[in-house]
Each structure stands twice: as C-alpha cells, then as structure tokens.
Amino acid sequence: MKQDKVTVSDLQGMKVGETRTFELPDARAIENGKVLAYRTGRMSGCRYKASSDFVNSTLTLTKEQLS
Fold first, then answer.
1. Whether pLDDT at 1 is above 80
2. 61 neighbors 48 (Cβ within 8 angstroms)
3. Radius of gyration of the chain, Cα coordinates, nearest whole angstrom
4. What CA–CA distances, in Å, run from 41 to 1, 14, 50, 58, 60?
5. Which of 1, 3, 42, 55 makes a 20 to 30 Å CA pair with 24?
6. Per-position b or e across 29-46, b if 16+ CB within 10 A of its CB
7. 56/40 Cα distance (integer angstroms)
8. Per-residue pLDDT at 66
9. What is the percent of the chain where pLDDT is above 70?
10. Residues with Cβ < 8 Å from 49, sequence gap 6 or more?
C-alpha cells in the first residue's frame, strides 16, 4: 500500500521481528522514514533495520530487540 510517509504509530504498531515494506513517493520520504525509525528505536528501546530501494521507492523496516 502506497503512503505519503512513515509515522511513529506505524513503527510502534510493529512487533519485534516483524518486517514491513512502505511504498513512498520519493527518496526524501525514504530518508525521512529511516531517520524517524532510528530515532523512534532509540526512544523505545528497540532497533529498526532499514533497507532502501530508491528505484522502486520502497523502504523496508524490521523491528529488532536490543540485546
């Protein structure tokens, strides 16, 4: 599903180990989504692994538990 941006509620709704792919409008939205994921992870005590695909305008995030 295509959306304009990644939100904090999108990230907080993910379970540990879950992977979600976000279809975003452009490279700027992808980079903003990564920054938001890293910042949200630090605040909530988890980590998000990010993979960017600029050709297909997708951002794939996996929520991981900090060890």
1. no
2. yes
3. 11
4. 23, 11, 12, 20, 15
5. 42
6. bbeebbebbeebbeeeeb
7. 25
8. 87
9. 99
10. 61, 62, 64
Above 90 in pLDDT, residue 52? yes
Which residue's entry shows tokens 């991981």? 64
Six token digits for residue 10: 């999108």
Q: Tell me the C-alpha distance between 40 and 36, whole Å.
A: 6
**Are 61 and 12 spatial neighbours (Cβ–Cβ below 8 Å)?**
no
Helix (H) or strand (E) holding 58: strand 58-65
Q: Which pair of tokens denotes residue 55? A: 């050709």
Question: What residue spans of 1-67 are helical by DSSP H?
Answer: 8-12, 27-44
The strand order across the sheet containing 19-23 reads 19-23, 58-65, 46-53
Alpha-carbon gap, residue 25 to 46, rounded angstroms:
27
